[in-house]
Known about the structure:
The complex is a heterodimer of chains A (592) and B (186). By secondary structure, chain A is α/β, with parallel strands linked by helices. Chain A has 25 helices and 20 strands. In chain A, helix 18 links the parallel strand 15 and strand 16 (424-425). Chain B is built from four helices and eight strands, in the order βαββαββαββαβ. Magnesium ion (MG) binds next to helix 20 of chain A.
Amino acid sequence: xxxxxxxxxxxxxxxxxxxxxxxxxxxxxxxxxxxxxxxxxxxxxxxxxxxxxxxxxxxxxxxxxxxxxxxxxxxxxxxxxxxxxxxxxxxxxxxxxxxxxxxxxxxxxxxxxxxxxxxxxxxxxxxxxxxxxxxxxxxxxxxxxxxxxxxxxxxxxxxxxxxxxxxxxxxxxxxxxxxxxxxxxxxxxxxxxxxxxxxxxxxxxxxxxxxxxxxxxxxxxxxxxxxxxxxxxxxxxxxxxxxxxxxxxxxxxxxxxxxxxxxxxxxxxxxxxxxxxxxxxxxxxxxxxxxxxxxxxxxxxxxxxxxxxxxxxxxxxxxxxxxxxxxxxxxxxxxxxxxxxxxxxxxxxxxxxxxxxxxxxxxxxxxxxxxxxxxxxxxxxxxxxxxxxxxxxxxxxxxxxxxxxxxxxxxxxxxxxxxxxxxxxxxxxxxxxxxxxxxxxxxxxxxxxxxxxxxxxxxxxxxxxxxxxxxxxxxxxxxxxxxxxxxxxxxxxxxxxxxxxxxxxxxxxxxxxxxxxxxxxxxxxxxxxxxxxxxxxxxxxxxxxxxxxxxxxxxxxxxxxxxxxxxxxxxxxxxxxxxxxxxxxxxxxxxx
Amino acid sequence: xxxxxxxxxxxxxxxxxxxxxxxxxxxxxxxxxxxxxxxxxxxxxxxxxxxxxxxxxxxxxxxxxxxxxxxxxxxxxxxxxxxxxxxxxxxxxxxxxxxxxxxxxxxxxxxxxxxxxxxxxxxxxxxxxxxxxxxxxxxxxxxxxxxxxxxxxxxxxxxxxxxxxxxxxxxxxxxxxxxxxxxxxx
Lengths: 592, 186
Ligand SMILES: Cc1ncc(C[n+]2csc(CCOP(=O)(O)OP(=O)(O)O)c2C)c(N)n1
Ligand SMILES: [Mg+2]
């Protein structure tokens, strides 16, 4: 039996054919890519088959962000195929983005033939050298015999442990040469097997803390989403059974539902007042798959001074990197939560009811601040109002949201509610303007019938607008909801608060006529500037069967609050109605 | 190792961590990193140190298992206790890395470095250089009428000390291998 299998699985074929075969055997159904000289043999193979769909992008950065959107919304790795030299360098931003947000990607690049490597050949770049710091791992394959195995390893590494982007660089002669194909199961087992089970003794210690804590909080992150739907389910069960409040980072939104009774909103620099104060005052912080990013902690020395901190993370290097924790559990969030629930239940489901009741009383008090309050207007559309209406009009639908980077991103995180994981795609760690539009196409490719909306700023959106052609060609009905403030709004806000209102190059000059631009690519264009017309315009966008470019002209000088200025502790947050003059001192100004 | 079998320092993930996590004192640690000897692996390790701003005091690398294609990288690094922990964790997550050992905290270890010293001079100084070399058990591996090349092995401190003594005696060139280290015992 085994021999039979071996014989059918191991075949002689060209490297180019192996690439396609390996992708099929890995269950890949779509590849985002762009051809060029060094990948022509692979493109020839793609031409001669129908199992894998190829999405032709308009710029390699777009391909990587599409693959990220695909991966983030499905939980499967995204696959990218680009040529050598400029094809590879154009993919660098996307890979760095995926590395910082732990998104599994397999990027295949063509390379000049092995005998030309090092000669500054046409379109030669040291791709593995350039991408070493922006991938989880990368390989240059110099021998066709090793190609299939390397690709299988690449999928293994991209998806195991903390997910991330990997790259396989394939010289053109390796694509042409013939070798033995090996299937995924014949590939040599990788020693790379990160531990997923948490230490039971430590999990029990955490249960003990849970049983007595007076002011506990779950601080959840992207790791819960990455761990899979099971982890989100377990988080919901644990949070609801214990009655503990839950806050989340930008990357973790949706793991616990916004309608859940424990939900107290996003935390961090633009997080909710109640979430940040609860983090500051808690006595037990349970970090699940988050990494104490500087957007979250504010000033380290004042970060949650009164709490015992527990940290569950699959990546040991995340533990004690920025914040020293009292209890570290290395493992996959899903596995750890499963064991944690078991132990907690077996010990009688104890919590400190009295303490919790007081704690919630305090949290309710903080909620009364209504920190997201803004001054609405009947003359001009406030960006917050636009998002409130978008939320109200799309809520019940099968909806996926992507964003660009800037104020609109933070408002989207504040004003949209997420009920399920994998529904929210945003560039968190790298903050990549230009991410959202291609990501929305990737999401739509994975979910053809869903409503996919990119909440965008006009400046970010222009950074990858070439992908309009891709959306038209592949009939992805993505909705681009641009909150057009004619400003690099987030930059303008910092200049107002930190740089004496000197608005150096932070406005969007010479913007296109977005409606005409839409029409030029065969899209529908909508412009809206009157709050009274907004609902109808949003409905027209949702109901249109095709891509829509929605130019929503909003208030130009709105600031995004709450805001914890860089270098400030959580309890020194700026609120919308506060005086912002001198709020940020010189020490804080050096931080980003 | 102490009688209690509690490793000195151990890792900060351990309940027996005896060090202050916020200590600002710089420590020097010798790390042994076992890696697959694949293309680019050294660049990966060095890139990690430079990219994250860690220090390398010395670094040696060579394949130690030709059949298994394993290399052993010995890095001597300095940093505060939390930084050292980060370095180990960051090394540990590199895909071709199999094992990271902190020889400084994992019980006693032996460290040796090899160095070559070229000393030139004549008369009294030349005699004195030869006499000191003898005390340090350095061998003469080359000599001309006005120069010696000494070969010395020992701890980095011993080699430093020898260098200090040779300097006034006409030291012209030094080549050092960096540290190779192994844990003591079976
Ligand atoms: C590629 C890139 N370049 C620069 C920045 C710095 N940056 C952050 S937000 C921002 C302005 C974004 O403007 P817009 O997309 O219109 O969003 P708004 O803040 O106005 O909502 C800039 C320039 C970035 N994040 N990414
Ligand atoms: Mg803008």
